[in-house]
Design goal:
This protein is of the alpha+beta class. The protein contains five helices and four strands, in the order αβααβαββα. A four-stranded mixed β-sheet has the order 1-2-3-4. Strand 3 (about 105-115) and strand 4 (about 120-130) form a beta hairpin. Helix 2 (about 35-40) packs across helix 3 and helix 3 runs parallel beside helix 5.
Length: about 170
């Protein structure tokens, strides 16, 4: 009887779709209200650059899990601060010098959504430089890109864990 029950449970586990069986597509990358508010200062094209950086980080970290027809990961960049002035910030009345530096970083969140629209998991991450001295030598969006990379790594680890546990 125990063998029969174990076999039935094993067959049930095999027939239950798990995350490991479901590819993940990177869906929409949206902008939060705070970031949209800053868009006038940064310039509209900077939003597209930030979305591209986040998409690149997610594609790099989730490369083994990407595909269509499964789950979708929708992300939102809530806010971001550059380490160096953007083109828009270097022009205009209050023009900043290209060598100006500041503490940068970003806040980002995402939802993993099943094919039938159920939210399976939510993720969020935010990071900023600790000290202005740490910023020397940084490019325009270095800390925001670092935030996106760390966020993508956490999402990947979470998806791997879900696949390992079959949930």
């Amino acid at each position: 009887m125990l063998r029969t029950m174990t076999a039935i449970l094993a067959l049930g586990a095999l027939s239950t779709p798990s995350l490991a069986d479901q590819p993940v597509a990177i869906g929409e990358i949206a902008y939060g209200p705070e970031l949209i508010e800053h868009a006038e200062d940064f310039g509209e094209r900077e939003l597209d650059r930030l979305a591209g950086y986040l998409r690149d980080a997610l594609e790099r970290e989730l490369a083994d899990q990407l595909g269509d027809g499964g789950h979708v990961l929708n992300a939102t960049i809530l806010d971001a601060q550059p380490n160096r002035p953007t083109m828009e910030q270097m022009s205009g009345a209050r023009a900043l010098h290209h060598s100006s530096v500041s503490i940068g970083g970003a806040d980002v969140e995402a939802q993993l959504v099943s094919a039938d629209g159920e939210i399976l998991e939510t993720y969020s991450y935010g990071w900023r430089s600790w000290n202005i001295r740490d910023v020397v030598g940084h490019a325009q969006w270095t800390d925001a890109r670092r935030t996106f990379s760390r966020f993508a790594d956490q999402v990947s680890d979470s998806l791997d864990e879900r696949a390992d546990t079959g949930s």
